[in-house]
């Protein structure tokens, strides 16, 4: 391995372990599902940013939680985040027009 790729690996891991979303979810969260439209710009921008920035950090720091992303071709689809809890009903959060940091904060504070 070259030093350059080693530095890149270090940078990637440092990025995954720090920043928004680099936290453990509640112990009773078993699955997180994100539904976003792949067309349209307005209501889904925060959810798309959450998908690319915060979700990888959450996945890295919560290996026992299943993360699922559904990209819908219908531009009228409203972005939503579904949080599944162990042996309890899921909680659905409507996230249109929200900033990605707010979405991440809602996920981290979610309770059944």
UniProtKB/TrEMBL annotation:
SUPFAM superfamilies: Thioredoxin-like (SSF52833). InterPro entries: Ribosomal_mL43/mS25/NADH_DH, Ribosomal_mS25/mL61, Thioredoxin-like_sf. Gene3D superfamilies: Glutaredoxin. The keyword Ribonucleoprotein applies. Residues 47-86 form the Ribosomal protein/NADH dehydrogenase domain. The keyword Ribosomal protein applies. Keywords: Mitochondrion, Ribonucleoprotein, Ribosomal protein. This is Ribosomal protein/NADH dehydrogenase domain-containing protein. It holds the Pfam family L51_S25_CI-B8. It is found in: Mitochondrion. It comes from Phycomyces blakesleeanus.
């Amino acid at each position: 391995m070259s030093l350059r790729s080693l530095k890149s690996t270090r940078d990637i891991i440092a990025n995954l372990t720090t920043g928004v979303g680099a936290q453990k979810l509640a112990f009773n969260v078993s699955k997180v599902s994100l539904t976003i439209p792949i067309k349209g710009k307005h209501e889904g921008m925060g959810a798309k940013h959450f998908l690319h920035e915060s979700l990888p950090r959450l996945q890295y720091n919560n290996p026992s939680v299943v993360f699922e992303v559904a990209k819908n071709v219908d531009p009228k689809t409203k972005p939503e985040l579904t949080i599944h809890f162990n042996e309890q009903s899921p909680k659905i959060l409507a996230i249109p027009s929200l900033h990605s940091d707010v979405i991440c904060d809602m996920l981290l504070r979610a309770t059944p």
